[in-house]
Amino acid sequence: MKILIVDDYEGMRKLIRTMLRQAGFQDIDQAEDGETALQLIRTRYYDLVLSDWNMEPMSGLDLLRAAQSALPSLPFIMVTGTPDAAEAAQSHGADACIQKPLNGTMLKNTIRTVFERRHMRSAC
Questions:
Q1: What is the DSSP pairing of strand 76-80 with strand 96-99?
Q2: In a domain, 14, yes or no
Q3: Are 33 and 52 in contact (CB under 8 A)?
Q4: For residue 63, pLDDT beyond 80
Q5: Sequence-ordered list of residues with C-beta below 8 angstroms from that of 121, at least 6 positions apart, any chain
Q6: CA angle, 2 as apex, 43 and 76 as ends, to 5°?
Q7: Does a structural domain hold residue 117?
Q8: Which end of the chain is more exposed for a tag (fewer CB within 10 A), N or C?
Q9: Hey, how many other C-beta atoms are within 10 angstroms of the C-beta on 2?
């Protein structure tokens, strides 16, 4: 599975990458902002995007909208700091939201749930 991590803080990208590797995911790219992520999404194949909500100049919500326009079927998990942001992200099409502080188990379980839901939808 090829995963793209998008966060403007290098420390958070490293933390998420470490958690993903511990969960068995190895094919991981990173982007430090939404514009870079969008360029990657348009030129490479990804199975999943994990994006921070609060980024500048393109927010995670803006990235979600742009990614949906480019690839409507791309699974997208938003990492947020508040319940309101999580609710907004899901109302705009995020497959799931993870509230900070996150941990490896939470991350792995959320990814599994997203793909189980998508598999169930495609089987119907």
A1: parallel
A2: yes
A3: no
A4: yes
A5: none
A6: 80
A7: no
A8: C
A9: 13
